[in-house]
Each structure stands twice: as structure tokens, then as C-alpha cells.
Amino acid sequence: MMNMRRTISAILVGICALVSANAQAQTLFPVTSPNGSVSLSLKLKEKSLYYEVEKNGVNVLVEAPIRFTIDGSELCNSVDILSSDSYKTDNTYPIRGSHSLAVDKSNGRTFKLQNTILKINFTIEARVYNDGVAFRIILPGKQGEMRVPDEHTIFTLPKGSIVWYHDMYCHYEGIHQKKEISEIMQGEWAAPPVTVQLPGKIGYLCITESALMNYAGMSLQANGKNGFETKLGHAQPAGYPFAHDYSLAEAQRLSQPATLAGTITTPWRTIIIASDLNELVNSDLITNLAPAPDKRLFPKGIQTDWIKPGRSVWCWLDGGARTVEGMKEFSKAAGELGFEYNTVDAFWYRWTDEQLKDLVDYSSQFGVKIWLWRHGRDMRDPQKRKELFERCHRLGVVGLKLDAFSHESKEFIDLYQACLKEAAEYKLMLNIHGSNKPAGEVRTWPNEMSREGIRGLEYGKNQYEWSTHNTTLPFTRLIAGAGDYTPVVFGERRLETSWVHQIATALVFNSSVIFFGSHPKTMLDNPAVKLLKQIPATWDETVVLPSSRIGEVAAFARRSGKTWFLAVLNGQNEHSLQFPLSFLGDGWYEGMVLNDRPADAASIKIERVFCRNTDALTGRMRVGGGYIVMFTPKE
């Protein structure tokens, strides 16, 4: 017995010595995904907090510091770990996006910490999924206690990583660049989501945020050391859209960091990790981390009865009489297309209640409801918001397109949240234009049907390659959530893209209400009108096909109900690609095929095929072309 006690004592002494030695260098706290493939490790080095992320034992984010200041003092230095607790999430919920049912399954851990110099206790919460990781900081505070937070956490990429990003000059409406991480110069801005192709065959990574509320939005700035530094809204440059709509004095005022009351909870810093583009597009990470909807406002979540996805006509892009009678013609044409909505632009400001109600009532006989455009500047006054929302509800308007915010300061984030909440109280859907990126709002606020924060066809006839842009967006900006690109035009605005390419954008780009750019009569006269009428606004299933390459080809198979669509966007090289139809269900399908005509981008060749899931089809696409098949099951 005495010998056994001596042996145990020796072992304990050895363990204590090892822990003590390691503590001087670093302490590891790994959180692993349910399947064990992904891990996030929180490290304490010389009492400062660091983290790293691995997939299958390989770094996808290299060790880097977590930096958070409160009232100018660094919180994540001089840190002691007090305790940690683990938890799990394992549930599903309905969602709108690449599929209709989201899966939330993760391992989580909360770390209770103390800054020993400031004598401040705080928490880092980490959550790890099979397809990514997320972390956030929670700083308790007393009611009415006012403090100023800021962040400078670093995201360091492995050498050889390829990055797709755009700057902040046009806020979130930029053109993506593709660069190797070492080529990105110190000081360059990157608007999340930032998509990365990792070296070797690891796959892809996407950095953004979720649950953005009561806080400033996050952008990224290159540090010249293979990484990006977190920059909150006050530190971001005021882009051209904000300068166009607001004053220099306003921009200077918003460049000061925000003061927050009480407990401070940062948004989740989210890193999607995917083996391929299909996993990237189908990730639920961002909505998993967003709060569930308030049942008092949304008793059935996204299925609440007054929230109706659909398609809308709109006159701003492709012309139309900007009068009550002109909008009646648009509503009638929308009804012929089977579309649910007509969005009326700013000229309605001059209308009386009687004129607006006349349009609402006239449109209803065609099954069409009315949305209205409104400048975001008018939303900053709570009383004006209430009056607008009450008027719309009283007159039968179902949605508002609120425009021209273009800033990510806490003040504007609070404004987005106020608009969404108060609109829901009046049972109004919203499309937020001139906006920042989405960050899970589709889950928390199901009445947000789309938001811009994307360079779409409103940018007109500028001389850049739409086809490269359009084959990049599904794997970059649209990973964050719905984007109102205002798709589909058939005139000069489409530049080098073909008619088939244009129609395919409405199938590939997610938006729970699709606001079509084309004049409705132009769509009715198009040879592909039968397919245009069938384009869904929501999807039950999405498969990104292996032939997809960021900036070159975006090939999507998508299901709505029993109908499948194969939609392909082609970039700057001609392609002849074979598409196996293994995504189809059993049995025979009839396919309506839309092909490019090599000699004429402004035309469509339409064919009919019969096929099964053991077959394959070949799409031949011109530069800027496309390929579409609508598959209907044969009964």
C-alpha cells in the first residue's frame, strides 16, 4: 500500500510539473466538431489570448491574437482562466435560402476569464460545427453602465491561400478581386464575406459574422502578414454611396466608436470551412448562430401567414410610365406572368391615399400586391417610421424597399433592427437596399425578404465583365444570405452576357422576393416566357455541381417541390460541359432546355428532352453565356 501511494504521488507531481511548464508557454482548450474533423483551440500565451482553427489536423486559420478593448484598454491581455463549461446544439428549423430545412448541430464551450489588471470578468463563447467555427465575447455590465468597445482580432490564413474580396469604396457593392494572400497589401480593405481557397486539397473558408445587433458591423483590413484585422463600423471608410446621400459632417460623426449600455455581446465571428463549393453554399452556420424569431411577432417563424416569398416587377431599371395608370399596367402584366408583386419606385411620394388605394385594389384582381420604395433617410425619425408603416398597412401595401443606408456604424445597425421590428408589428415585409451584408437576419427577422449589399444590375452599363462577377457572387457575397441583384435584363445593360445567362441569375442568386429588372412586357414577349413564369423564389434543395469554379462557372441544380432546375452561369471562356443528372429523383422527367446561340447572345434556342437520373446532358456555352434546364417529373 505504501509503495502504491508513493507511485501515485510521483505521477501527480509529474503531471503538475508538466502543466506548470506548459502554462508558462501556452494552454490549449480545443473545442471539436461533432464528427471530430474541425477544431478551434483557444490559447493563453504569456497571459494573452490567441486562437487557431484546424480541419483534419491541418491549420485553416493560423494562430492569431484575439483583441478586444473596452474604453481603450486591452481586455484579452493579462488573462486568467476561471472556468469553462461545455454544451451542445442539435436541432433543425425551417429556413429560406439554398434549402428549406437547416441543421444546427455543434459542440460549444464558454470560457469564464478575468483580466487581472483591469479586474474585469468576461466570457468567450466558442461553437464548432462540422462545417465551421464561431466565437464571440460577452462582457457583463450593470444596467445603465456606459462603455466603448472596439475589436482588432486577426484572421491569419495559411501561406498560398487564394482570396476573393472587394474593397469598401462602394460599401458592400464592390467588384471582387482574386489574389494570393501574400499579394494583398497592408491596409487594403475587404468587405465580408471573404472567401478563401485553402492550399492543397483542404477546400474553402469564408469569414463573416452573424447575430449583428446592438453593435457595429465588421469589415476586415489586410495586415500585410497573410492576415486580416477586424475593423468595426466607425473605423471603416465612408464609401461613395454614403457620401452621395449624406454629409461629410455625418461621416465624421459616425467615425467615433459607439458607446454601449449594460452587457456587451459581440456578434459571432464566423468561419465557414467546406471541403468543396457544394458544402460552402449549403452551410447553415450563419443562420444557426442568429437568434430565433420572436414568436409574438412571428408566431410561425418564416411560415407566418403574412410573409409570402414571390416575384416582383419593377419599373426603375427598364422603363415604364411612372404614373398610377402606368403602374396599373405593370400590375396587370405581373399577373400575366404569375408574379405576386409590383414594386413602385419613389414617384409614389406625390400620390394621395386614394390614388395608392386605387392601385392596391386594381392590382388585387390580378393576384398582385404592392411594394413601395422609400429612402432610408426618412426612417431615422421614429415618428415618421410609424406614420409610414401605419399608412402602408391601412392602405393594403404589403412590403417596403428601404434604400440608402450604406453605413455599418452601430447607429445604422440599430436602425435596421428598428425598421425590421416595427415593420413586423404592421405585418410588412422589407427589402433593405443600400445596405451592409446580411448576418442571419432571415432567421431572426423573417420579414426581411432580401437585401442589397451586392453589386447588381442597377450599376448599369459600366465596362466590367458581368460574367466574371456573376460567377463569383454565388461563392462570395451570397454565402452570407439573400442578395437583391435585381436580376434579368435583355437590353444593353447586360453587356457581354447572353439572354440565357441573364435568366439563370434569377435561378442561381437567392432572394426570397425576386425583384426582376426587366420590363414585364419584355419578359412576356421573350421566347423563354414559359420558364420565366415558373422561376421559384425559394428552394427546397441545392446541389452545386463539380464543374463549378469561382469566377468561371457557377453550375447549380435546385429543387422546388418536385421540379428541378439546372442553371449554369458561364464566365469569360467558352465551355462545353457535361452535367450528370444524378440529382434527379427516380423515374422519367421532361426537360425544357434553354441554350445559347453561338452567333447571337440576344436569342435563345429552346429544346425538349426526356431523361432519367442515370443520364447526362451537355451544355455548350458562349462567353458570358448560360445553360438552363427545367425538369418536370412525368406522372
TrEMBL record:
Signal peptide position in this chain? Answer: 1-25
Keywords, A to Z?
A: Calcium, Glycosidase, Hydrolase, Signal
Please verify whether the record's keywords include Electron transport: no
User: What is the source species?
Assistant: Bacteroides intestinalis
Subunit structure and binding partners: Monomer.
Q: What is this protein called?
A: Glycoside hydrolase
- Glycoprotein recorded as keyword: no
Q: Where is the Glycosyl-hydrolase 97 C-terminal oligomerisation domain?
A: 538-631
Query: Which segments constitute the Glycosyl-hydrolase 97 N-terminal domain?
Result: 31-290
The prosthetic group or cofactor this protein requires is: Ca(2+)
